Amino acid sequence: MGYQERRVELIAKRAAPHLEAGEQIQTGFVAQSGSGIFNVRVWTFVVTDRAILVVGRGGAQRYRRGFLFGEPTGMYHTIELDRTYKVHRQYYAEITAADEALRDMLARGNPPESEQR
Question: Does residue 26 contact residue 97 with C-beta atoms inside 8 Å?
Fold first, then answer.
């Protein structure tokens, strides 16, 4: 199993307990928050067809799927949700894929289910 496959498997494993029935993972990536050596926290972002899950040690937060992450540039891309998250450039393809998936869903007239409620 290669690095990419292990990364996908890890994200799916972290997301599994927090997914709703029938919810499909579209992509995922790892981000960090905080600064300095001793107060950096690592988070797993899981983008599904219904929501964005931010998984940490204490559980997961669900956010509406209608959020666009924006075009990543530089060494770290910044995401503003409940706090500031930084995503390393090794995950830029996943950020782009998440935004493209949302645009495709909206173009087909198929908004995320969480938006339909």
Answer: yes
**The pTM is what?**
0.89
Cα(23)–Cα(16) distance, integer angstroms: 10
Token pair in block for residue 106:
């909206």
Domain of residue 14, CATH code: 2.30.29
Task: Specify whether the CB–CB gap between 86 and 74 falls below 8 A.
Answer: no
Q: Which domain holds residue 84?
A: 3-116
pLDDT in tens, 4-43: 889 889 899 999 999 999 999 999 999 999 887 788 999 9
Write a three-state SS string for 33-60.
Answer: ECCCCCCCEEEEEEEECCEEEEEECCEE
Number of independent structural domains in the chain: 1
